[in-house]
Design a protein that fits this description.
heterodimer, A: 76 residues, mainly beta, two-stranded antiparallel ribbon, 0% helix, B: 344 residues, mainly alpha, 15 helices
């Protein structure tokens, strides 16, 4: 699976590692990150216990998944 | 919340009990419920669904002037268990075919659940709102939804102490987000209340109970049925999974419809939050909760699909009724007293 986004190390020195789990035909579930940087280097703060980071490159609210992957055929 | 108006002999009996009438005949009520099992359609039965909703509500916030002891009154619980049984049988009958097909299909649990959301696919209220709804239609839609969204996620919370390990951690993770992640103003139920208020509607929980029809109550009652019976915990989680997996893309349509209609930002914000939140929640619910539950105990597989199918079936039945009413120029509510001038 091609992941279009870089998941950084947590900004604060926390006790928890960043954990990223790819979902088949879906986003990357990320736990423990404080921010996610998009391709242009902009930092997006993490405000949820888990975030879904877009992995299909088609989301309309990068870097977050907005479900758009569901309307893309799976064999692409 | 005030006790609602009765809708027939069952709800009248239940409301009579709670209102302190001495002469309620509990045995006759139980017999009346059992008689309903011969009725093919309890989902569309206003009297049945209201009686059930009222009894379930005793486990949530309850009613003004109704003694809290009623929650565990054995006479009342006997009536409710009779209702639960008839309702569950109707739901199983309605979804049997889809559940059997999902159990027999290839693929892992999340894959088959995602497929089910595409198989049971009725008319879309989100698409209607996006393209053609009027402000009045949309306000009616909010009224229907208010019965659940003002206690959003509460029925799924009953399941926390009934599961363990990974699915439990994932459920709490999901619910923490639903409940605002520590910020009361971000509680989804509170965000929905703000949206209602901004549209000139009542924000109080239960304010529109008398106006919503049986199918809207049935959507709610199914969640309470699954949440309140430990036996049905897997159905509760299947329901949650299907609900989350059919929320993100429709929420985007709702936002676009809200903007088209020039409705207040507060209501757009509620749906906008769900585009992103539910793109996370659907993965959590299907992969870390449903699939893990089945891995821990394979005998739960059938009920995971049962709960999911019920969510999709009832949602599509409700959508069908709403859209049919609007297309024929009628209100989808029981009492058409919404003031179209009230939208800011």
């Amino acid at each position: 699976m091609r992941v279009a986004w870089t998941v950084p190390e947590p900004v604060a020195a926390g006790s928890r590692d960043v954990e990223a789990t790819p979902c088949p035909h879906g986003p990357l579930l990320v736990r423990g990150a404080d921010l996610v940087r998009d391709n242009e280097g902009r930092a997006h703060p993490v405000t949820r216990p888990v975030v879904a980071v877009c992995a299909c490159d088609k989301s309309q609210r990068m870097p977050w998944c907005d479900g758009t992957h569901k309307v893309i055929p799976k064999n692409r | 919340m005030q006790l609602p108006e009765e809708r027939g002999p069952l709800s009248s009996g239940v409301l009579g009990m709670l209102g302190g009438e001495a002469a309620v005949d509990f045995d006759a009520l139980v017999a009346a419920v059992r008689g309903r099992s011969e009725v093919a359609d309890v989902v569309g039965d206003d009297d049945f669904q209201l009686a059930m909703w009222v009894m379930y509500e005793l486990h949530y916030l309850g009613f003004e002037g109704v003694a809290e002891e009623w929650e565990w009154d054995p006479r009342l619980l006997r009536v409710r268990l009779a209702l639960d049984g008839v309702f569950e049988a109707d739901l199983r009958r309605r979804t049997d075919e889809h559940v059997a097909a999902a159990l027999a299909a290839d693929g892992d649990v999340p894959e088959r659940l995602f497929d089910l959301t595409e198989t049971i696919d009725g008319p879309s209220v989100a698409r209607f709102v996006q393209r053609e709804a009027t402000r009045e239609h949309f306000k009616e839609f909010l009224v229907h939804r208010s019965v659940y969204h003002l206690k959003e996620s509460d029925p799924a919370s009953w399941v926390i102490p009934r599961i363990s390990g990974k699915p439990k951690a994932a459920l709490v993770e999901l619910l923490y987000d639903e409940y605002g992640a520590g910020r009361p103003d971000r509680l989804h139920a509170t965000m929905f209340a703000s949206g209602l208020e901004a549209c000139g509607l009542e924000r109080e929980y239960g304010a529109y109970l008398d106006q919503v029809p049986a199918y809207t109550l049935a959507v709610n009652n199914a969640m309470s049925l699954f949440g309140l019976h430990r036996r049905l915990r897997a159905a509760a989680m299947g329901h949650l999974g299907a609900f989350e997996a059919t929320s993100s893309l429709p929420s985007r349509r709702f936002v676009s419809g809200i903007r088209r209609l020039g409705l207040p930002e507060e209501v757009a914000e509620y749906f906008d939050e769900h585009i992103e939140a539910d793109a996370v929640h659907e993965q959590l619910a299907l992969r870390d909760i449903c699939a893990e539950l089945v891995r821990q105990d394979p005998s739960l597989e059938r009920d995971v699909f049962f709960g999911a199918a019920v969510c999709l079936h009832l949602d599509s039945a409700a959508a069908e009724q709403m859209i049919a009413a609007w297309h024929s120029g009628r209100t989808s509510l029981r009492v058409p007293d919404l003031d179209p001038e009230a939208v800011a």
